[in-house]
Amino acid sequence: MTTTDTAEGPGYTSSYLADQHAGQLARLRTLERAFDGVSQAVFEQLDLSGKPAILDLGAGAGSLAAWLSTRYPDATVTATDIDTRFLADIPGIRVMTHNASTDDFPAASFDVVHARALLCHLTEREEILTRAATWVRPGGWLVIEDVSLQPSLNTANPLFRKVAEAGISLLEQSIGSDMLWADTLADRLRERGLSNVGQRTVEGRIGDNSAADTFWAATTAQAAPALLKLGLLTQSDLDAMANLRADPGFSDAALTLVSAWGQARG
Ligand SMILES: C[S@@+](CC[C@H](N)C(=O)[O-])C[C@H]1O[C@@H](n2cnc3c(N)ncnc32)[C@H](O)[C@@H]1O
């Protein structure tokens, strides 16, 4: 992986996707609308009973943590993020500032450790996954969900492919993201010794006015100044892509949300 040195250095928190960006809360809401139903269905099949301790790592704007505290009223739900500004007013959850790349939890602290759309963006993803597996109690679950942009690379449309390649390149250069890592998630969990590993992959499209389409458009719009600044796309590329997306004759697979889960051995 190559990274571009900027004044602040590469990384999520100094990037165009960081929480201090004016459009970030609205963009995170589009992500939640696209993926919360998938994440909730994954939790529903885990058979959580008693008073589970649940960690949502890199919880963002917190809609999933809020749902967890309502769905499992006896649970203790801890929501962490490196920037907790959007988590402050959510009732029923514990909020903690925590850098997943450097901060730890004691071994066997939680019945479920969950992270969505986080590890793909952190260069220490493999090491974080290893540590996060140790935070799960025997019999508990590690649930990792991440976005893969592989479908956008498979498109037959040359403009969409150009925009997709530019977006993946920007994410890699400016943040250190690996937007294909999600495709190997289940194997990564097996490598950590987890059992009963399962996986679900849900496709998101563009050009169909779906929630995934809105998330894709919000993220591309937020990335636009950086794409132009680095010369990865021109304004006419972006304008043509906006027209293509609005064309009723166009729709294409853009991404998958890969959800993978595995159980800590007793
Ligand atoms: C794409 S958002 C996903 C938010 C949430 N998990 C969701 O799916 O709705 C990524 C989140 O990770 C947080 N983040 C970035 N780097 C982090 C780190 N090193 N440790 C913890 N959180 C981090 C960001 O602040 C942001 O809220």
Structural write-up:
- Its EC number is 2.1.1.144.
- It holds the Pfam family Methyltransf_11.
- Keywords: Methyltransferase, Transferase.
- The structure is a single chain.
- The protein has 266 residues and is an alpha/beta fold.
- The protein has one domain: Rossmann fold (3-Layer(aba) Sandwich).
- 37% of the residues lie in helices and 22% in strands.
- It is built from 8 helices and 7 strands; from the N terminus they run H-E-H-E-E-E-H-E-H-H-H-E-H-H-E.
- A 7-stranded mixed beta sheet has the order 3-2-1-4-5-7-6, with helices on both faces.
- Helix 3 links the parallel strand 4 and strand 5.
- Helix 1 packs parallel to helix 2 and helix 1 crosses helix 7.
- The longest helix has 21 residues.
- The N terminus is likely disordered.
